[in-house]
Fold this protein.
Amino acid sequence: MALKSFIEVSPDSHFPIQNLPFGIFKPEPASPPRPGVAIGDYVLDLSTISVSGIFDGPFLSGSDCFLQPNLNKFLALGRPAWKEARAKLQNLLSADEATLRDNPSLREKSLVPMSKVEMLLPIAIGDYTDFFSSMHHARNCGIMFRGPENAINPNWFQLPIAYHGRSSSIVVSGTEIIRPRGQGHPSGNSPPYFGPSRKLDFELEMAAVVGPGNELGKPVDVNEAGDHIFGLVLMNDWSARDIQAWEYVPLGPFLGKSFGTTISPWIVTLDALEPFACNSPKQDPQPLPYLAEKTSKNYDISLEVQIKPAGQEDSCVVTRSNFNHLYWTVTQQLAHHTINGCNLRPGDLLGTGTISGPEPESYGCLLELTWNGQKSLSLKGATRKFLEDGDEVIISGCSKGDGYNVGFGTCTGKILPSL
Amino acid sequence: MALKSFIEVSPDSHFPIQNLPFGIFKPEPASPPRPGVAIGDYVLDLSTISVSGIFDGPFLSGSDCFLQPNLNKFLALGRPAWKEARAKLQNLLSADEATLRDNPSLREKSLVPMSKVEMLLPIAIGDYTDFFSSMHHARNCGIMFRGPENAINPNWFQLPIAYHGRSSSIVVSGTEIIRPRGQGHPSGNSPPYFGPSRKLDFELEMAAVVGPGNELGKPVDVNEAGDHIFGLVLMNDWSARDIQAWEYVPLGPFLGKSFGTTISPWIVTLDALEPFACNSPKQDPQPLPYLAEKTSKNYDISLEVQIKPAGQEDSCVVTRSNFNHLYWTVTQQLAHHTINGCNLRPGDLLGTGTISGPEPESYGCLLELTWNGQKSLSLKGATRKFLEDGDEVIISGCSKGDGYNVGFGTCTGKILPSL
């Protein structure tokens, strides 16, 4: 029989006892931020639980990692500590365990209704890297910008292509995004366009949250890379396609991306996702030995993007994709990132790149869905080629188990007009 | 008559009382890191000076910004505080002022011989951005890789091109650099090369250290951008040209750069550099209004790179350049960086890109100096196309005043073999 909590959790909740994602929250506007895990419609305050002495195992006993304003210190402890925390929490919340269930005062102090809390960025992000690991996305962009003959560059099949992103402008779900201003291609001999972006887009991504990390000069072996990934978040890598197209040769994306990147507040652990592990696509050509994994794993996570157009009550699904469309696994991404000696630190973020599937209904951004604005999307009453001011984008992600979900909640953002 | 210190400073020192660059040091291996300024052959310990109550002005009185392990808190205070600190310190160290000069106990506690201290990274770097602002460098790279007709892309003259770099692998001068491993272009139908980089290079750069910064969504006006730059450091943006060439299309440099970036320990303030301000090159076409400065300033800073080849006692000068060769000013870079709303934080680093001058003797990297390995550099007994294991690269920079220098010291690093 499936594990059950003494807290009532609706069958369609993303946050049953099988999940227990970690985040940072404030129970009241004036309270200091602290770690929590989601359980049904509640957040369990880990600072309270920690002070009550429940984490008495070898890795967490005496640690102040749950008395911090972010999860970095916990992430630095590594997988044995993560597993210990998960086991303690699953036990503490289970229907059979009296410690919390039968202690009204501790319940009162430690369980906060999710509707009352403010969620914050779960981690202090030192460096953020964005990969480009969906073949369908790479091919579609290539066809649009270079034609079908050379759609995907030969290097793409040999290494997980990536660029460094901007850490400072990563925000938590719900933060409004101001439409960026910038330069676009000149037409003829006139100076470049300057003004609010005319091609504002979302990108459906997920991102891996890095655990202990490695020393400068010491690469992580691809078969140990899993121990350096705490979990995954949903990510919207907002993109201004006109700014990006004009600036990106030869050094890559810069201001077309750095105005904002949104992540979900809850980090779902790889341990919670393990039941949803699946094979990754066959790689041809075979990767070089440093990228060859004994077991090459993806996860079956259904992803969906809805747009709620400005002024409308209802949102429309614009795409459905899945994490398992990634060609390069997150462990290959991490091993590649360190092969030159580059050091990763706890809290670093590795974005997957836009996750597009093979079918037009599964493309992960408007650039692909409207083929760079050549056709319109129909959203009930409204039509869109790119995002308009007031539009809200809602990403959700969920793995469906037998009678329960392991979900990510949502990752949302609304576009405000340029200043 | 020029301002003089009671501390004897040799006329060729980089650190007279006119300079007073800021850094972070440890007086003893076991001491906690603390801020200091360089004066002649000494480091003045700002934690000691601060505790003694000398910073009694409106901006610094009561502040613990000099009791921190990095300069970020001081940088966050902004130019009025920076000017107040500089004025206090210039007064405290001047020949006419008795406070420190005639207090042997305070002198003993606060002045540490530079030869005895360990210098650390002066700042906690949230984000590091690298620009591409020398036209000579852009043209040379363009000729090598795209031919002379399209050497410089049209966007280059309209905006300061840049990419996000890797923060975690920025190290202080003197840190050894392990030769990175990685993939290089396949030849014919064989798989890509994998192994230690065969084209390891230095890049002669400088970098601006960002002061207070801006809120997400609120760009900095180009005419106020100077107030967001605390000062400059020397920088060596080590580059593996073979890794870079294979990976960089279409998303820009990644592992070809992220294995290490070295900066000098001393940040020379823009206030100390003000006497060396000079006009920047005329820009044609005229920049768009958001990049048009009332006063467009460069600085006359002589730059030099020496290589000390493995096994040799002597180093050889391989290039001489000048900061004033930059086409885009650091204030234009900063304003451009924020025009889309991107937020900068105290301690962020804005690299200039390789600073090449117009003459072959002033090119800022081996890629240009040896024309991608087509010719060799002669270094007394040795010859080099790219860096070999055991080679040390020494960058220095200095502005020459009337009877004094405002210098940066050196930025050095030695290549260790791949693991």
